[in-house]
Amino acid sequence: MTARRRDAGPPQPGASETETLAGFLDYLRDAVAAKVAGVPEPQVRTAGVPSGTNLLGLVKHLTHVERWYFLGERTSDWRRTMRPSAGETVDGVLAGYRDAVAQANAVIAACTDLTLPARRGPAPSMRWVLVHMIEETARHAGHADILREQIDGATGR
């Protein structure tokens, strides 16, 4: 089965810097979540590459990254964030990701100056965090593209 997902696309030009950065980040977040949605067990946690990377683990990891950079919540073992436990479900991991994104977006919306330190402080700046999160999420969205295509042939953003 080969399916192609349609999406809303990236943000339009003309917005403020914060709106543009947050818009691209949301666009990528949506793409990652869409790659995982609808993938059944056990395929959603099946490693598609020798490193063990799997779709569910990518979303779990990105949840922790969102919480670290925007909410200041520490993670003691970053490798563990890539490995979903047997009890974690697709719906649960996606709900956790969406919750982290909503909380992060509230932090972004409250930021009046991108040069100020992000919540994890004292550095880096919110601008740096937004750009890094775009890079981090885009990188993992690419991984998710490949893993999803290996599972069922689905392509597209």
Automatic annotation (TrEMBL):
Q: Which domain of life is it from?
A: Bacteria
Q: Which Pfam families match?
A: MST (PF04978)
Identify the Gene3D superfamilies for this entry.
Answer: dinb family like domain
Please give the name of this protein: Mini-circle protein
